[in-house]
């Protein structure tokens, strides 16, 4: 791989040698590696992401274009070096970007923060999301999605469901709030997809689910229980602070006025989405497609998500 990478980088960086190529842990859908690109008088620390194309994730070139649009309006993202959907050079489509120092493991981040640090990071997350939603989504190949229909279809494809999921889908379809203007949506903005350093939020990662949709989708996804990683209920926004503080910080950064009832509807959609994902991951194991103790364990979390949905729907649904 090193010689192939050198061939990719030479037209961009000149004569370089690839050193210290190492595959990193983490990343469920794509392989991530770190390496140094060494020229006569410079050493650049870079990240390589590769993975086969599929119907779910954005292509590498689209990821790169979306990140560049977000960077143009102030969102903290890694600088893109190059991206290509053609697998010819490296065996799979690829994206190469600069490496950014910091931590991504959420429990370590939580342990490193005091109350002031959590509040600061929560505000920075809201500001980053507001910047992403300001980015121009036009003419770069983004698709629009209907989240409720998409996850309904995903569940139906498995030929399996639960009474709680069915009730949630029906309630959500019957009580959908008025649509809001569509913007560029990250699609997986959450703790675990952020780099955090000593000053707070350093970069937003993992743009493979980027699309056009409603801003509430990103806001709600950040706040489901799974992305608190065991933090207290009162820290409902990413384990950093209250949901209300997060929404207020977003309003201050974006100039938007958020409808709390619409947010609660989207929080229910986000929770249901996570439940379907857990069931899908279990199916990958149960079907024999990808035998994995980890996938089987994720499947056991379906019941946790059902509990959260019942809690959200208690008394007839979000208020």
UniProtKB/TrEMBL annotation:
Coiled-coil parts of chain: none
Pfam families: APH
InterPro entries named in the record: ACAD10_11_N, AGP_Transferase, Aminoglycoside_PTrfase, Kinase-like_dom_sf
CDD domains for the chain: ACAD10_11_N-like (cd05154)
Domain Aminoglycoside phosphotransferase: 23-238
Protein name, entry field: Acyl-CoA dehydrogenase
Lineage: Bacteria, Bacillati, Actinomycetota, Actinomycetes, Mycobacteriales
């Amino acid at each position: 791989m090193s010689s192939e990478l050198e061939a990719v980088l030479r037209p961009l960086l000149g004569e370089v040698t690839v050193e210290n190529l190492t595959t990193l842990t983490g990343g469920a859908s794509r392989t991530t590696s770190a390496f140094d690109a060494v020229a006569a008088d410079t050493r650049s620390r870079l990240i390589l992401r590769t993975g086969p194309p599929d119907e779910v994730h954005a292509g590498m070139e689209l990821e790169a274009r979306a990140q560049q649009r977000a960077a143009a309006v102030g969102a903290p993202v890694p600088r893109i070096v190059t991206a290509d959907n053609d697998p010819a050079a490296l065996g799979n489509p690829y994206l190469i970007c600069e490496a950014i120092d910091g931590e991504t493991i959420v429990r370590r981040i939580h342990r490193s923060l005091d109350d002031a640090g959590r509040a600061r990071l929560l505000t920075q997350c809201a500001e980053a999301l507001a910047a992403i939603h300001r980015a121009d989504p036009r003419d770069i190949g983004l698709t629009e999605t209907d989240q409720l229909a998409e996850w309904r279809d995903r569940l139906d494809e498995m030929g399996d469901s639960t009474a709680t999921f069915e009730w949630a889908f029906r309630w959500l379809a019957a009580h959908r709030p008025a649509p809001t203007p569509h913007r560029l949506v990250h699609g997986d903005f959450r703790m675990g997809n952020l780099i955090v350093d000593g000053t707070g939020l350093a970069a937003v990662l993992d743009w493979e689910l980027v699309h056009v949709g409603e801003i509430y989708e990103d806001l709600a996804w950040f706040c489901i229980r799974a992305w608190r990683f065991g933090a207290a209920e009162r820290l409902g926004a990413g384990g950093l602070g209250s949901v209300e503080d997060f929404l207020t910080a977003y309003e201050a950064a974006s100039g938007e006025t958020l409808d709390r009832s619409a947010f609660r509807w989207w929080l229910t959609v986000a929770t249901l989405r996570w439940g379907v994902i857990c069931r899908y991951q279990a199916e990958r194991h149960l079907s024999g497609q990808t035998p994995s103790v980890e996938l089987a364990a994720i499947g056991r979390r379906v019941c946790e998500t059902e509990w959260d949905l019942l809690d959200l729907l208690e008394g007839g649904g979000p208020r």
